[in-house]
Amino acid sequence: MSRSYNFIDHTADIAAELKGSSLEELFIAGAEAWLVSVAENINIEADDSLDIELSGLTTEELLITFMNELNYLLITKKWICLSVQPIKIFEDKNGCELSAELKGTKLKEKLSLKNEIKSVTYHQVEIVQRNGEYSTLVVFDI
Predict the structure, then answer these.
(1) Residues 94-115: pLDDT tens digits?
(2) For the whole model, what pTM was predicted?
(3) Per-residue pLDDT tens over the stretch 49-86
(4) Which class would CATH give 3-141?
(5) Are 104 and 79 in contact (CB under 8 A)?
(6) Nearest Cα to 16, choosing from 24, 28, 4, 25?
(7) Are 44 and 111 in contact (CB under 8 A)?
(8) How far is Cα 75 from Cα 1, in angstroms, rounded to an integer?
(9) End-to-end CA distance of the chain
(10) Count of CB atoms within 10 A of residue 99's CB?
(11) CA distances from 92 to 47, 65, 75, 133 (A)
């Protein structure tokens, strides 16, 4: 499996192009791009885990809901997601569901935050599958 994220120039916000060999890898790339956008020193160990279940009408809605959940945990619970494993995405005629185990930690002095993301937006989000690879653009409103 492969995944990546690449930051691109964006007026006043942060934008990242996400790629993955599966929807799961695409979502993990999104989590990694979010983490790099909010935290400066991420060389710390996860000492906690959290199971989440989310749903959406489309995969795009599910991706934004997932990334906003990571942001919610940081802003309100002072808990930062450092990795996502495993992650499962189910699609059917009624929409999409995600279940994942988040690995993370409560905020500590060793971890300094560099950007406060207000929201992960729907602006320009369209998950495309080409040649066995999924891709999309996400914009973080800062």
Answers:
(1) 999 999 999 999 988 777 788 8
(2) 0.90
(3) 999 999 999 999 999 999 999 999 999 999 999 999 88
(4) alpha beta
(5) yes
(6) 4
(7) yes
(8) 31
(9) 31
(10) 13
(11) 35, 18, 32, 20
